[in-house]
Specification:
- Helix content is 39%, strand content 19%.
- It is α+β, with helices and mostly antiparallel strands.
- The chain has 3 domains: 8-302, no CATH class; 311-422, no CATH class; 430-486, Arc Repressor Mutant, subunit A.
- The strands form 4 sheets. It has a 9-stranded mixed sheet with strand order 2-6-7-10-1-11-12-13-14. A 3-stranded antiparallel sheet has the order 5-4-15, with no helix packed on it.
- Strand 13 and strand 14 form a beta hairpin.
- Helix 7 (336-349) crosses helix 8 (352-369).
- It is elongated and about 95 Å long.
- Bound molecules: zinc ion (ZN).
- Zinc ion (ZN) binds next to loops.
Length: 489
């Protein structure tokens, strides 16, 4: 994984950082957690609401069982123990987007606990990031602050969306590991199909706890919470900044205050949101309107059967089965859709290494450049495989293949069709190519002489002319051989 952000701890060898994460994952169930309203966004404000999710008094919540399925799935996939009997609690606080003044969540016990996720740390060793718990809760609505008028609005469409909160121990040591952890966790929930895990849209969002201490001290330092950071890049930047800020305070003999901070993406600084003194007491209370969640072995077995091959296993299989490097396997499996696309291409062309090269070099570059998802790509896996095969069978050369690739991306056509339409077949006819080469030699006596006197660099000049003459279609290998044959004294 490339990483442009430096590890600030290299500057302070006596110190270490302890970082924990609290990730909120929005679940993509059909309906909300406690009512039958559709669990969808992008609708008109307050369109998908009812008395239950908008918090009217006296209504009764009814638990969506699929939410529990998804929580068990996430628990199994992250090596958690599934709690046989867990319950819901009310967490009290007042905020305009939470009309009933409490959030239904899980306090003790949560549905899953004591799990772990394995990441590969910087020295390529496996590292275990332990999970404290995963619990189920409902999301709140949204406050919309108008920029043109002096008004705020409330949209409750999001209220009652099911969430999982995944809480880790402070086992993460730097921003590099934090990014790996987030990437792995994100791909796990994507693989499970339980969330879109889109950070920009807020369906995968996280808070980070950071403390630092001198290496020889046993007790963890005072932790500071970073909230509301919505990209991996900003999280990494904020972690690095915060580690250094805390170390500087300690080195100057100061004390770290327990507080909540946010990240200013323009100024590249963290700033204080609230201090511990203002921290709320949520007065957790057992939710009286919902029954206990009882999960038996049979339920767990049923969910186990629903779990697909997960990232760690897929990476290993890609390396073994397709002979890919760790780097290639990590990227191709980073996204389940990409992993499936790759396998579909390989199924059709039986050339895994070439398919991997083309996907990593051309396809991903194209998606990034055009800011589109794989879903929006017009090239089917079958057509992509055909492109690799026409190169392999020397029907076109790689330079022409790049052009065809772009036409495929724009039109969705099969490469063979494009080759036919545009007459792009590679010229392999030695007789014809020999004519081209001889003509070039005859027309450029000066350069030929210089070449023969030892100016070897001119060889490229002749190759260039031959390719130009054939509109890039000549088989470069044959051109090279023919030039070598005829450029002699
Ligand atoms: Zn509702």
């Amino acid at each position: 994984m490339s990483d442009e952000i430096k590890n600030v701890l290299n500057k302070y060898p006596d110190f270490e950082a302890n970082i924990g994460m609290e990730i909120h994952v929005q679940l993509k169930t059909k309906s909300k957690i406690f009512c039958s309203c559709p669990n969808q966004f992008g609708q008109k404000p307050n369109e998908n609401i009812c008395p239950i999710c908008s918090g009217y008094p006296g209504v009764l919540p009814l638990l969506n069982k699929r939410v529990v399925d998804f929580a068990i799935m996430a628990g199994i996939a992250t090596n958690c123990e599934i709690t046989p009997v867990s319950r819901f609690s009310r967490k009290h606080y007042m905020y305009p987007d939470l009309p009933k003044n409490f959030q239904i969540t899980q306090n003790e016990p949560p549905i899953c606990k004591n799990g772990h996720i394995i990441i590969e740390s910087e020295n390529e060793k496996e590292k275990r990031i332990r999970l404290i718990r995963i619990h189920i809760e409902e999301d709140a609505g949204k406050n919309i602050h108008s920029t043109s008028e002096d008004k705020s609005y409330i949209d409750l469409n999001r209220a009652g969306t099911p969430l999982l909160e995944i809480v880790s121990h402070p086992d993460i040591s730097n921003s590099y590991e934090a990014k790996l952890y987030l990437t792995r966790l994100k791909s796990i929930v994507e693989y499970l199909g339980i969330s879109d895990a889109n950070m920009e849209k807020g369906s995968f969002r996280g808070d980070v706890n950071i403390s630092v201490k001198r290496k020889d001290e046993e007790k963890l330092g005072t932790k500071v919470e970073l909230k509301n950071i919505n990209s991996f890049k900003f999280i990494a930047q904020a972690i690095e900044y915060e580690i250094e800020r805390q170390i500087k305070i300690i080195k100057e003999g100061g004390k770290i205050n327990q507080e909540t901070r946010s990240w200013d993406t323009k100024e590249h600084k963290s700033f204080i949101m609230r201090s511990k003194e203002e921290a709320a007491d949520y007065r957790y209370l057992r939710e009286p309107d919902l029954p206990l969640i009882i999960v038996d072995k049979k339920w767990i077995e049923k969910i186990k059967n629903e779990i697909p091959e997960l990232p760690n296993k897929k990476i290993k299989r890609f390396k073994d089965e397709y002979n890919l490097s760790n780097y290639e396997a990590e990227i191709l499996t980073g996204n389940i859709k990409l992993a499936n696309y790759f396998e579909e291409v390989v199924k059709n062309c039986k050339l895994p290494k070439k398919a991997s090269n083309w996907i990593l070099r051309n396809l991903l570059g194209y998606l990034k450049e055009n800011k589109i998802d794989l879903d929006q790509l017009k090239i089917s896996a079958k057509n992509f495989a055909d492109l690799i095969l026409v190169i392999e069978n020397k029907i076109i050369n790689t330079k022409v293949a790049q052009e065809i690739f772009l036409i495929m991306a724009q039109t969705g056509k099969n490469p063979k069709e494009i080759i036919k339409e545009q007459g792009l077949e590679q010229l392999n006819d030695e007789e014809k190519l020999e004519k081209v080469v001889l003509e070039i030699i005859n027309n450029n006596p000066e350069q030929v002489e210089k070449y023969l006197e030892g100016k070897n660099k001119l060889f490229g000049f002749f190759v260039g002319l031959a390719m130009k003459q054939t509109k890039g279609k000549a088989n470069p290998k044959i051109i090279n051989e023919l030039l070598k044959k005829h450029l002699t004294k």
